[in-house]
Specification:
single chain, 262 residues, alpha/beta, Rossmann fold, ProC C-terminal domain-like fold, 2 domains, 53% helix, binds NADPH dihydro-nicotinamide-adenine-dinucleotide phosphate, binds (2S)-3,4-dihydro-2H-pyrrole-2-carboxylic acid
């Protein structure tokens, strides 16, 4: 399979790099487009095809990953729709807020379309990617899922949950960063220099997340292991809850969801 990534920006280049690093396909089988190609020199050096001609990229590929900004998708679809072939191509869109029906309407063909919502950890092959599909067969969905499995973990969801997936999985990276930053600020106040506090905070969050994923555990079970009766963990946790910690996170998630669905 040959893959075209239309829109070689942050996400597009991260996908290309991840696919190459994982050995999922050869660099020569990947084409990345953008209007100003100078920023894609590193991909060209790796052996990818790099140019601005979206139509040529579509004609030379089987899987078309659309990774332009939401306000640019219509123009790119208008450009390539005549070259899209329902018997050959699968279109994969990572564009936030654009529904499969919108894409199919813009293409004016019942093309197999897969919508994927990764997060920015895709740059280090640690994304959580939620996937939804329409008019794609099992084999096509599995191929796309396998592609994103090279870039982290995947789950197939109903497209109706894509806004929720965006909030929890994609915006979630920003929420986690803010949590880590608050830990760093607290860590500095209790004596660490910024660099050491950053390492301790980030590695601790990484370890906590891996505990849940690798042992299929529940957060409260892991909390019970840390909290010594009358100890400092429970004192801190309870104070955080008195200040509305869990409630503020839940309200934040709801505010994001309200914004994305309005
Ligand atoms: N899941 C997540 O966490 C996130 C998802 N996203 C989604 O991913 C998509 C991409 O975001 P991101 O990578 O950050 O955006 P970028 O702006 O970094 O990348 C988009 C790229 O598209 C290129 N482009 C624009 N017009 C065209 C065109 N006509 N033909 C070919 N290339 C074109 C631009 O380059 P040039 O101007 O040189 O053409 C640019 O490099 C967005 O739709 C966004 O919604 C974004 C961020 C986070
Ligand atoms: O903030 C946003 O609107 C988008 C959604 C996912 C990441 N960025």
């Amino acid at each position: 399979m040959k893959i075209a990534i239309l829109g070689g920006g942050n996400l597009g280049t991260a996908i290309a790099e991840g696919i190459i690093n994982s050995g999922f396909c050869q660099a020569a089988d990947i084409t990345v487009t953008k209007r100003q190609t100078a920023t894609l020199k590193h991909l060209a050096d790796l052996g990818c095809n790099v140019y601005s001609d979206n139509v040529k990229a579509v004609k030379n590929s089987d899987i078309i990953i659309l990774a332009v900004k939401p306000y640019n998708y219509q123009i790119v679809i208008d450009e390539v729709k005549a070259a899209l072939n329902t018997k050959k191509h699968v279109l994969v869109s990572v564009i936030t807020g654009v529904w499969i029906n919108d894409l199919q309407k813009a293409i004016a063909k019942k093309l197999a379309v897969v919508r994927a919502m990764p997060n920015t950890a895709i740059a280090i092959q640690q994304s959580m990617t939620c996937i939804a599909a329409q008019d794609a067969n099992h084999e096509q969905i599995e191929y796309i899922r396998n592609l994103f499995n090279q870039l982290g973990r995947t789950v197939v969801i109903d497209e109706q949950l894509m806004d929720a997936a965006t909030v929890l999985g994609a915006c979630g990276t920003a929420y986690a960063m803010r949590y880590i930053r608050a830990n760093i600020q607290g860590g500095i106040e209790i004596g660490f220099d910024a660099k050491t506090a950053s390492l301790i905070a980030a590695q601790t969050v990484l370890g906590a997340a891996e505990l849940l994923i690798k042992t299929d555990s529940h957060p409260e079970k892991e909390i019970d292991k840390v909290t010594t009766p009358k100890g400092c963990t429970i004192a801190g946790l309870n104070e955080m809850e008195h200040q509305g910690f869990s409630s503020s996170l839940i309200q934040g998630i709801n505010a994001s969801y309200k914004k994305i669905t309005k």
